[in-house]
Each structure stands twice: as structure tokens, then as C-alpha cells.
Amino acid sequence: MAKLLKANAHHGAIPGFKRNLLLREFIPSAGLSTATMSRTALDFMVFGEAYLYCQPNAFGQVLELQHLPAINMRVRIEGGFVQLQPGGKEIEFAEHEIVHILNYDVEQNIYGVPDYLGGLQALLLNEAATLFRRRYYSNGAHAGYIFYTNDPDLTEADEEQLRAQISASKGVGNFRSMFVNIPGGTEKAIQIIPVGDFQAKDELEKVKNITRNDVIAAWRMNPALAGIIPENSAGFGDIEKIDRVYTSNEIRPICQLFDQVNDTLRADRKISWKDPTETAENTISGV
Asked: Whole-prediction pTM value?
């Protein structure tokens, strides 16, 4: 899932955008900085889960929360967590040392899963179509044709020169024009027979558009917020209203998942929700 972020422009940009919207609702504190929250939120968007280590003070109370990369975290069968390290090493954590924020999966309750999994096939098809077209151009296959000649006046030296020019049209320098002069040659002495019709059979735009729509739908992202250029003059509507509705329906429910961090730490510190002495300094985070 981490590598797939580089497979498509929209799939790579949307998790960062949703992370930014979540940070907009976040209240940083001494216990949880904006930088830590940014990394944690991005993990949640990409993997559907995030891990925070409760750094204790000398009295065993939680001093601050530290981000642990979700890609290296595993849940132990006997309880607790393990962080995989280079060289096959592991760091073990007790269950109470880790705050595990996860998006519930109906098939298991051990790891979180992201919501965009249903769009992975569209994502991979989008990547395959792009790579195919890139190789198509790099190989010079767009200039594919049969160069046919039946003129007896064409010498072997001319044939060799034509063959060299055709070979040079591949890769760098493709789309080169070619001038051929055969004195006394007939009308059809040289014919160019295309192997395939580049325009009529080109499905790239259709595949890219369909798979792009599937990707942003899997992310539940509004097209106006996903950087999509509208195809009509009316556009997508009032962007501010779209932003408010999207934040209310998509981002704030995620905020509620992160609120469990506050619940966990309030329980650890025995801080009441209605404690009149509570200040921003003894609240670890707020979303």
C-alpha cells in the first residue's frame, strides 16, 4: 500500500490532502505536536491505522505521545505490539504503552484497513495504462509502419540509408520526417502502411478518466477537492460549501476516532471531562 502511493497522481495526493484537513481541526499541545499528528494522520489515511507510543515521565504518567510508523508495527499474538527493525531485530511494547487507532474491518479486529481497497484494481489499471503509453513512446512504437517499396531504381546504398533513418526514428528523435527522391519512380514506388491507427484505437483517455473516477470514489473524495478539471462551464459548484459538507461528513468522523487518544490519556491521568481546572497544558491533544 505504501508503494502504491506513487502509482497514480490522485491516489498519491488525496491521503495528504485528507491529512491536511484533519490537521485543520487539530489543536496541538505539549503532549502531541503538529508534526507528530501529521505523520500519525497520514499513516491512518494510507494504512487505515496508526500507532502512538505513550512516553512516560518519572512518575509513570504519560509525558507525550510519539509517532511509530505503522508500516513497521505488528500486533503480538500473546498481547502487546512489536516494531520491526533492520537486521531482523524487534522492539516489544506492552499493550498499555501503545495507543492503536484503527479503522474497523468486518473480517478481523487486529489491524485496521483503509477504505480505498475497493479501488485498487482501477488504480493498477490506471498505472498500467500510463506505463504502457510511456513505453509506447519510448520504444518509438507510435511510428510503427511498413515501409514498402517496389522501385527497381532504388539502389542498395539508398536502401541502407533508408533503413538507418527508420531505425533512428525510435526513442530520442522520433517523429522525424524523411525525404526520398527516386528519379523516374512510379506513383506508388514507395508506400507507408501503418500497423495500427493511433487515433481511432487509442483508449488511453477513456481508461484514465474511468479509473480516475473510481480512485477518487474509493477515497470518497469530492471531485472539486481532488483537483479534477470540470468538463462543463458550470463547474462543481460553490467550493466553500463543498468543503464544509465534506469536512462535516468525512473529516470530523475521523476526528472522533482520534478522540480516543484523549479518552485514553484522560483515564490514565484521571482527568474528568468536566474538570473545571483542565487547561490546554494538561490536555494531550484535541481534534
From this structure: 0.73
